Every structure is written in structure tokens, then in C-alpha cells.
């Protein structure tokens, strides 16, 4: 715990303003990025600012490491702003917006396992909690204990949610692929129709 606080630059600094400045400089971009995945730019900035206002007020109570706590505060603030229906759609829209046609030109086509539209359609079918669990692990790179803090559950519960979310995504991707490329009818069925 102390090692993390040293790494965070918070331990050993007596001046609260300096401690807060270190916290802000270290984590503002992560909090803003988290909020940008869920809402438009102006709202994301407001949520990020309010997150750090709360952190300033509770500076002496911040856990170590601070990032999961900050993301949890941002998550709660976002929950107050939107009902789950709007938040899920906005998250899918933000992920779609982050992948541009320029990205497709830069990346080798062979590296794309599933095309972008199929992946977005599959993500849109998932509950918000599933998408968030996967985003915390893959997009933000948080280990299970920190991601669990953000989602307000235990690490074990988070791991179960992440596992189930990945299974549901796998099923959704399979369903989307079947819709996109229907299987040809068997030859025997074609022969009986022609006769």
C-alpha cells in the first residue's frame, strides 16, 4: 500500500495542493478517457472536473491506488446523468467513433478477425455492464481488483462478470456472422425444389 502511494506521488507530500496536483496530473487523462467512452465531450469534461472536485474534498481519504476510486466516482456521476438505455447506446457510438476509416488503411486487413460493423452490432446487443467489464480490462488495462473497485463489486464477482461478458460477446459475434453470411442450402433441398 505504501509502495503504491509513493508511486502515486502522494505519500511524503505535506502540502495538500501539491498532493492534489500530482493526483490530477497523473490521472486526469484516464478519467476523461473513461468518461468520453460514455458521453459526449462537454459532459465528459464536466464529469471529470466534478470527479476531481470530489477527490479534492476527500483528499485525505483516497485509497491506494487512486485510479480505480476516481473511475468509480466518475462512473457514479455518469449514472446520475443517463439512464442505462442511453448510456449503452452512447458507449457503442463512442467505440464506433474511435475507429475511423483511416485506422482501416493503416492496419493490415489480415489482423482483423471480425469486421467493424459486425463487432459493433454484437456490442450493441450486450448489456452495459458486460461492455463496461470488458472495457475496463482491455481498454483501460485495469487488473481485476481495480476494475472490481470501479464496478463496485468484489474481484471474484468482477471475474465472473468478465467471463460471462466475453462468452456473450462470443455468442453475439457468432450470431452476427451467421446473419451477415447465411449458410447455403444443402444440395438435396435445391434438387427437390427444381423437380
From TrEMBL:
Span of domain RNA polymerase sigma-70 region: 23-87
Protein name from the UniProt record: RNA polymerase sigma-70 factor, ECF subfamily
Species of origin: Streptosporangium subroseum
Domain RNA polymerase sigma factor 70 region 4 type: 119-169
One Gene Ontology term from the biological process aspect of the record: DNA-templated transcription initiation
GO MF: DNA binding; sigma factor activity
Keywords associated with the record: Sigma factor, Transcription, Transcription regulation
One Pfam short name: Sigma70_r2
Protein family: Belongs to the sigma-70 factor family. ECF subfamily.
InterPro entries documented for this protein: RNA_pol_sigma-70-like, RNA_pol_sigma-70_dom, RNA_pol_sigma70_r2, RNA_pol_sigma70_r4_t2, RNA_pol_sigma_r2, RNA_pol_sigma_r3/r4-like, WH-like_DNA-bd_sf
Superkingdom of the source species: Bacteria
